[in-house]
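Table 4 source record.
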Amino acid sequence: MYLIEGRGLLLLGLFAGLQIAAECRSTPVCRPGFSEDVYHAVLPHIAEKGEPLFTVIFEDCGGDDAVTLESSRANDFRIEADGVIYAARRLRIAEHRPAPLVITGSRAATDQRWETKIQLTPRTHQVQKAADPQDASQGLEEAVLPSQNADTPYKRTKRSWVLPPINILENLQGPYPREIVMIRSDGDSQSSLKYSVTGPGADQAPVGVFIVDSISGMLFLVRPLDREQTAAYHLRAHVEDLNGRPTEDPMDLLIHVLDMNDNKPQFEHQIWNGNVSKASRPGTFVMTVLAHDRDDPKTANALLRYKIQSQSPPSPSDMFTINSLTGNITLAGDVGLEEVPQYTLIIEVADMEGDGLANTATAVIRVVRDTGKPADMAADPPGESRALKEIVFPWRNADSPLKRMKRDWVIPPINVAENSRGPFPQELVRIRSDNDKSRSLRYSVTGPGADQPPTSIFIINPISGELSVTKPLDREHIHHFHLRAHAVDLNGNQVENPIDIIINVIDMNDNRPEFEHQLWNGSVSEGSKPGTFVMTVTSVDKDDNKTANGMLRYKILSQNPESPSSNMFTINNKTGGIITVAAGLDREKVPQYTLIIQATDMEGNPMYGLSNTATALIRVTDINDNPPEFTAETFFGEVPENRVNVIVANLTVTDKDQPNTPAWNAVYKITGGDSTGRFSVPTDPTTNEGLVTVVKPIDYETSRTYVLTVVATNEIALARGIHSPRQSTATVSIRVTDVNESPYFEPNPKLVRLEEGMSPETPLTTFTAVDPDRFMQQRIRYSKLHDPAHWLRIDTNTGRITTMAVLDRESSFVKNSMYNATFLATDDGSPATSGTGTLQIFLQDINDNAPRVFPQETEVCEKPEPNAINITALDGDLTPNAGPFVFELAHRPADVRRNWTITRISGDYAQMSLKIGFLERGLYEIPIIVTDSGNLPMSNTSYLRVKVCQCDMKGACTDHKPIIGAGMGTGAIIAILLCIIILLILVLLFVVWMKRRDKERQAKQLLIDPEDDVRDNILKYDEEGGGEEDQDYDLSQLQQPDTIEPDAIKPVGVRRMDERPLHPEPQYPMRSAAPHPGDIGDFINELPTWAADVGYIMSPRGLRFRQSACRDEEEKGCKHQGPYRPERGIGCATAARAYLAARDTPALSQSKLGFEADARRVRESETQQDREYDYEGV
């Protein structure tokens, strides 16, 4: 495929090519990359977080895609897009040379990468630059050359050290020469040295721009600089001794000339000619005017903006518009409606983005007729043309066979601006095949935007091939469309290969930047140095970020409050990083700053860019820059003696730091006047006051006053450079008041050793107390507070203690031979006080207790083996008044020594055993004489109760009854037996009573009033119940189930089984067709009684009761007495027959009315004899 362009477009392309060729011949080739392969950076020994350290320079050669800079040690060094490297944290640069820092630049679109290294070296002292570029002599930077090792020969030149670039404004006003920097060697203190500089601007062309004082090393600028002539100077500084031998390595000095807006923009032509067709519609591209500015294109000094200053003729006005960035002039009105052959426009261009130096040119636009051919200079740029391009399908050779498809021509993308105002449809391009001359063709397009979603955005005239857009496009929705154009004949046969048509939607600045948050919160410590990083605000723009529409720039619109300066912060206009630029942040004066941040697209152009704002709240965080200060120099307090945990004085301080923080919380320390540690000063957490507290008792008689020195600090140390003032130390004067103290016994407790058995009224000792109040004349009286055995008495005046009873060591009140008694000493002060003392009497043992045998009861087998018993003795006295013991049997009764014997095992134990082969079972008491080993031995006859019993194979006693008998008296046994007998009698009586009550209940049920006697009569009926086969009733099932006759021998009809009659069986008459109305009325009146009777008779329990009742009457020989009432009673046999009939007829058993009617019919057919049988039982 190929594109047919107009002659005007060809000329424009030719001019552009010539211009590019000229620029290529005059301008050296720019290669993107870092300005240096290796940088040498001199850093301070300690770098604070956020402190800018140095800058690297990257030349991007005007590329469209931004270059991303990255640091190999991102945790230590942070690099911004402008090349400035900051400390990412607090760094300490080692004295030795650390590992080099690698900076990498990359461009994502082309996958290009560049790399440079930075050699870091700690500098010997701080380098200060001149703050005012107009006065470079103030605060000159001092460049120190590194010294060589004197011991090593100067064999090779080390790579030069490079200072950070020195920036000098061009066109500076005098006086000259102007001091720039001082070069000094650290070896000049040992010998005289000479300094010199070499390089372009010194000893090379242009010569003499920079000179150096050979003695002092001061570098001077001798005349104004011109950036447009030379943008940078690279000098080398040298140092030599007086003999001309170099003593240091050369040092590189890089001097940048900063641009000033000293050049007006210049148009390429002062007169520009263009044509426009009378048939052109608004929006048609007319021409482009271009201007250039010699100032630095990276600054606003060279950012140009175009505008139409005037139009001639002025009417109709605003016939043309110009793109302020590109200089493209387009038609705004309809020239076909006016008879104006030519328009003259005055075009103005200004730098500083339209606010700087300006220049003008003239554009002459001729209105030409519509000849069907493009105008000479009316070639339209893509996306803005109304004169349609014509896309022609490539012609194929019809004579040659179609062996292979040629590769299609690629049509340049068609650019369409978004948000076009129409009118629609708007033609974009004309598609034509070179075969349309010989035959009729039809054109169509396919793809997204045509026949695929979103459909119908683009349409094509099938005959003319004109491709049009039907509605405005939105680049933020779809940024490009890929269509395919087809050409077929009238039969639908393809005559050309499809053509790819790429339509790019050109972005327009129709979206404002949007901040990610409307309110940003950040913080910075007070006292932070300039350059401290605070926070980063970010904004996004939906427009194309590869164009100026999406390139954002940030700036601070306002700062509130403007204290201590209106410019306390600055913002990186590209990244949105906010840093401090001025010192003086003080939380105590300004705790928070509010910044209004503006983000503007179009690279921040305020005239054409769209803006949005957000608020940044920067909270100034507190540091401990204010020490606590006492509100008074001396504090006073008073405390009674012997009191502890009492607050003597409250020390108050003031601290300007933020309350309830470690920088505000006070810590008090006693530095003098309390050598014994009797006081402490804790901090009240609420008021921050110091509470002077007594922690050890104070004695008035020892010291009456204390003077303490207290120092107040904070929980954290003061910030660097802040010192504690005199007000952080105070004096506390404490006066001690005298109180009446309790007397105390000395010694306490007091120990006295005595023998037990001391008689009453024997003096023991004197136990007195001492009054600590030396300045009070008081008497002390004594009394007894606790004497558990009431053995002692104390004299109230002298404290003399005597006995009241015999002291017994074996008393229960004596523990471990020690008896304790407590006495009270009371003075006569006001108020009176008292003290206690303990007298401890250690009672020494005497032999005053006879021993006794242990155990007192034991068991032994009746046979000799085994029959030994181990015994010992218990003695209340201590050794040597106790064991060893002597055991022997008493001489009486005589059978004791005959039956038993005692053998000594040890001093405290003996063994007793039977001497005879068998001893009758029983309980024996054996007298044993036990004698201790006291100086005057004491003897005692104890009785050992021995139970002789029958033993098993293991020697265990099996007879336990004697033990029980021995332990329980006869009366107790009799009482237990009587209780058991009484309990059995009560149980028997209860059982008899229950039996009798059951019989009485049954008798009451059988005693029925004759008026309420129930008479059972069952009638036979043939049409009810189970059918014809259910007419035989065998009542023997109720009386004698075992004598039931077989069905084969049972006669037809109903047989009475309770008593066999002598006469033949009666023939029952047929029942009447209907009952008598009177009987029905009686039945209705007596229905409740019948309901109960019938329900009971129907149950098996009712039948059993009827059987037993009839049987009782039969046994008694009773007959029916009284008037017979068939309408009230039902006989036994009749009830049985009714039960059997109801059982076989469930429907009848469910109906009491039906049962009563059948019962009446049965009763009517019964004879008198049958009725009498009802009372004779079953």
